[in-house]
From TrEMBL:
GO MF entry, a single one: acyl-CoA dehydrogenase activity
Keyword tags: FAD, Flavoprotein, Oxidoreductase
Cofactor: FAD
Keyword RNA-binding: no
The protein, known as: Acyl-CoA dehydrogenase
Entry-linked Pfam families: Acyl-CoA_dh_1 (PF00441), Acyl-CoA_dh_N (PF02771)
Acyl-CoA dehydrogenase/oxidase N-terminal domain boundaries: 6-120
Species of the source: Streptomyces capitiformicae
Family from the record: Belongs to the acyl-CoA dehydrogenase family.
Domain Acyl-CoA dehydrogenase/oxidase C-terminal span(s) in chain numbering: 251-375
InterPro entries associated with the record: Acyl-CoA_Oxase/DH_mid-dom_sf (IPR046373), AcylCo_DH-like_C (IPR036250), AcylCo_DH/oxidase_C (IPR009075), AcylCoA_DH/ox_N (IPR013786), AcylCoA_DH/ox_N_sf (IPR037069), AcylCoA_DH/oxidase_NM_dom_sf (IPR009100)
């Protein structure tokens, strides 16, 4: 493997740094001090700047106005966005768009992709299931009728940016019939196949209930009752959901890395200025050792991130499927970002809890990212299952 970034990938990162240079994570009230979400919408002005810099179309083919780059480039941009806690649905919209490009109908591609790249419409993904702890695809049943129309029933929780997105990509397990379960209630029979439905936010049978994330952002519970979707808006391709889920998890790792780097940089600057007993606290061995440990965490997060991004970008084979590398990256990201923000909070003392200082925002976002798409323990279990199914050596 070669972790040297290409000129195009480096250019994407440089463009991202230029766009995010003017974004500050402070000035937003603490989630615990407001009666609802910190804002009703994402940062539309920043979204327009990302579109102008061609950063919303990184993964799209030139035929749709894109750059034709790979997930590594997207992760580089996500890393920069998280350093300043940019409030934009860049991961979800980009991942959904590249999935449509790879597997969607020609009509769906023509309707969505160019407009996504220009920032005119926004996509998001329902990836947390009914409770946030169960497989997302099992939370919704999808049944195809004789005329080709698909009918969706079920509930998806904690869908990011759903109140402001134009379309939500919803995974669902294909129902082949209905039978009575042990309690006498109806239960769907499935064939294990998963489809992805691209559902308009405003649609008959679809209801959004507001939820608030740990970071104070608006999420939505999607309740679907006999939601009818045309076949042109449904992706029925083997492995499409698995690849989308892996891209979302890897992108979340990139966000965790950027957030951790931003928090550690803030802590380093503070420790170099804050004096105790006439000396900067950065010169104290106890402070230096803790900061060094968190630096090691970040380097491990970075190495495992690029390993996972390289695997899903190149499709390179290995002893384990790419899901194994994604699991390792997510384990490090979940545990590492938690340790980084906890140390940052500790070294800042009471100042870190001041809502006029932005560190509390990093702490809230880190907790959300730590558990997003599953905890470290969940990925450790998944990695164990992979190792059992693919013994090494």
């Amino acid at each position: 493997m070669d972790f040297t970034f290409t000129e195009e990938q480096q250019a994407a990162a440089e463009a991202a740094r230029a766009v995010f240079a003017g974004v500050a994570p402070d000035g937003v009230p603490s989630p615990s001090l407001v009666p609802g979400a910190v804002a009703d919408d994402f940062d539309r002005a920043l979204w327009a700047k990302l579109a102008d810099a061609d950063l919303l179309s990184l993964l799209l083919d030139p035929s749709y106005g894109g750059s034709g780059l790979d997930p590594i480039a997207l992760c580089l941009v996500l890393r920069e966005s998280a350093k300043v806690l940019a409030r934009v649905p860049l991961l979800e919209s980009s991942a959904a768009a590249v999935t449509v490009q790879a597997h969607g109908s020609e009509e769906l591609k023509a309707e969505l992709l160019t407009r996504v790249g220009r920032g005119e419409i926004v996509l998001t993904v329902a990836a947390h299931g009914r409770t946030g702890h169960d497989p997302a695809e099992l939370a919704v049943s999808a049944k195809q009728e004789d005329d080709g129309t698909w009918v969706l029933d079920g509930v998806q929780t904690a869908v990011p940016w759903a109140h402001n997105a134009d379309f939500v990509v919803v995974p669902g397990v294909v129902a082949s019939g209905v039978v009575a379960d042990g309690s006498g209630h109806a239960a769907a029979l499935t064939d294990g196949r998963v489809v992805l439905a691209v559902v308009p936010r405003v649609h008959d049978g679809l209801v959004l209930a507001e939820q608030i994330s740990t970071a104070g952002e608006r999420l939505a519970e999607l309740r679907m009752e006999s939601v009818r979707i045309a076949a042109r808006n449904v992706i029925d391709a083997e492995g499409a959901w698995e690849r989308l889920r892996e891209l979302l998890a890897t992108g979340t790792c990139a966000l965790a890395l950027g957030l951790g780097e931003g928090a550690l940089a803030m802590t380093s600057e503070y420790a170099g200025k804050r004096e105790q007993f006439g000396f900067p606290i950065a010169s104290f061995q106890a402070v230096a050792v803790q900061a060094a440990d968190r630096f090691i965490d970040l380097r491990a997060m970075e190495a495992t991130l690029w390993q996972a991004a390289w695997r899903i970008s190149s499709g390179a084979g290995g002893a384990l499927p790419a899901a194994g590398d994604v699991a390792v990256a997510k384990i490090w990201a979940s545990e590492g970002v938690r340790r980084v923000v906890q140390t940052a909070q500790h070294l800042h003392g009471g100042f870190g809890a001041d809502v006029d200082y932005p560190l509390h925002r990093y702490h809230a976002w880190a907790k959300h990212l730590e558990l997003s798409l599953g905890s470290a323990a969940a990925y450790e279990e998944a990695l164990g299952d992979l190792l059992a199914a693919h013994p090494l050596g």
